[in-house]
């Protein structure tokens, strides 16, 4: 997937998930999921995020495994998921799962939700890249590559799918919003 498709797919998937959970995300969560959906491509100097972070992208591209290397691997994802899981386990009983209005009213709660949103965006990026012929090296630095899809990153069909996910997520939240007025 290309940058705009990653943004659409990640944000749309997040909107669908939060709508199904009965949660309306705040602007910080939306920014976090957007950043998470782009950050794995910080390993490519010509990516949307790579152009914003040239020093970091050049390091990853030329020194730390190239594009779809460490930033697209379980080596980075597993610690992030363990941390997100710890946050959920440690604080879920106190904060509730998306159901507490107090969660969004505290700096601590906003940070918690932002971390979950960032993780969601990051994982959506990897799922999006798995939908391409280029695939992923999930067990980087091992050369084993998962390539389950016949679609290229620039595929119009893949872009259409990503944008339809965003439209679906937006429609679900608009429907919930209008239902709240009776």
Word description of this protein:
This protein is an all-alpha fold and 182 residues long. The protein contains 8 helices and no strands. It has one domain. α1 crosses α2 and α1 crosses α7. The protein is globular, with a radius of gyration of 17 Å. The model has no long low-confidence stretch (mean pLDDT 83).
Structural class label: mainly alpha
If you compute it from the alpha carbons, what radius of gyration comes out, rounded to the nearest whole angstrom? 17 Å
Residues in helices, as a percent range: 55-70%
Q: How many DSSP H or I helices? A: 8
Let me know the average pLDDT: 83
Per the principal axes of the C-alpha atoms, what is the gross shape?
globular
What is the succession of H and E elements? HHHHHHHH
Number of domains: 1
End-to-end CA span: 39 Å
Q: Describe the biggest sheet?
A: none
Number of strands: 0
Q: Beta-strand level of the residues, as a percent range?
A: under 5%
The low-confidence parts are none
Multimerization state: single chain
Summarize this structure as a short list of keywords or feature phrases:
globular; 0% strand; single chain; 182 residues; mainly alpha; 65% helix
Topology:
Elements lengths: L2 H18 L6 H12 L9 H5 L1 H9 L11 H22 L5 H5 L1 H24 L25 H24 L3
Task: Offer a quick outline of the entry.
With about 180 residues, the protein is mostly helical.
């Amino acid at each position: 997937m290309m940058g705009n498709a990653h943004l659409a797919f990640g944000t749309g998937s997040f909107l669908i998930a939060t709508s199904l959970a009965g949660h309306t995300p705040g602007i910080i969560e939306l920014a976090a999921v957007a950043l998470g959906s782009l950050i794995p491509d910080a390993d490519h100097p010509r990516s949307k995020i790579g152009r914003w972070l040239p020093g970091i992208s050049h390091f990853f591209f030329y020194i730390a495994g190239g594009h779809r290397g460490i930033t697209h691997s379980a080596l980075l994802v597993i610690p992030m998921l363990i941390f997100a899981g710890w946050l959920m386990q440690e604080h879920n009983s106190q904060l509730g799962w998306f159901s507490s209005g107090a969660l969004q009213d505290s700096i601590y709660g906003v940070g918690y939700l932002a971390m979950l949103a960032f993780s969601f965006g990051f994982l959506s990026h990897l799922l999006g890249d798995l939908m391409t012929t280029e695939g992923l090296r999930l067990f980087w630095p091992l050369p084993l590559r998962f390539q389950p899809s016949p679609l290229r990153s620039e595929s119009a069909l893949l872009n259409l799918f990503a944008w339809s996910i965003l439209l679906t997520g937006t429609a679900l939240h608009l429907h919930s919003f209008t239902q709240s007025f009776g």
